């Protein structure tokens, strides 16, 4: 019976057979007849630095994950960078699992923010405004946000959240991200780009979102039960975005990479270029695709992220030179 052991010092071990004598300080926290299920439990509940497999006790450095974040997989090579992902409106962590798995191959630990009102947090009420959402994130992820190095990746609404969280942490004189990846979003000073949906019926709202963003799969559109589950968070997020009021501040000093789809109807080149007024843009890249260009460019975007983060850290630079920090 494979089991997962833990200690108060934040160390984990997977035992692939019954262990007759439990070492001092260790306790069983999970067990299953399937070793892969044990590993899945570890990866979904703990943030691990290196996860091995084999027989016997295999301790790893680990930290229990808070409610507001998900770590879908552990890097298969030593970690040199951490990326915190902020999903799009209505989106949850699972949408970024494929992205995280590719980044793990380059030694990037990907933590995906879980907003209230969806997936594992579906029982929580969605955040009514940006301030409430930022407070929720800071409350749940205080230790993770304080650790360095850490970079932010935000898509669409998530780009706005990552940007506003960075400004908020600067005002509080707290740790800021080392790099920002902002995708699928115009600069906050640009008006008129967001779709006003507050007055629409549910049916008209769904059609408008599906038509503009191509973001709702047909199997979900054709399932009234599923739509009823995702509608509250989706509508709340659109309300949050449209009603957020951007406050002018001095520019951030965080290196930023902009990534957008060439066929994204929600943005314009001028609106994207306006980000240069808010922070130093080191790359402004356009990739083939619509608002969700990441889906068809997973490897390309992962390479861009890995290369940018690789050269920021001494260990990462060494990995790049040795070929560990980049995919072939």
UniProtKB/TrEMBL annotation:
One Pfam family of this protein, by short name?
Answer: Thioesterase
Annotated signal peptide: none
**SUPFAM superfamilies hit by this protein:** alpha/beta-Hydrolases
Q: Domain Thioesterase: where?
A: 82-305
* InterPro entries referenced in this protein's UniProt entry, alphabetically: AB_hydrolase_fold (IPR029058), TEII (IPR012223), Thioesterase (IPR001031)
Q: Which GO terms describe its biological process?
A: lipid biosynthetic process
The family note in this entry says: Belongs to the thioesterase family.
Q: Which PANTHER family match?
A: S-ACYL FATTY ACID SYNTHASE THIOESTERASE, MEDIUM CHAIN, THIOESTERASE
Name this protein carries in UniProt? Surfactin synthase thioesterase subunit
Taxonomic source organism: Oligosphaera ethanolica
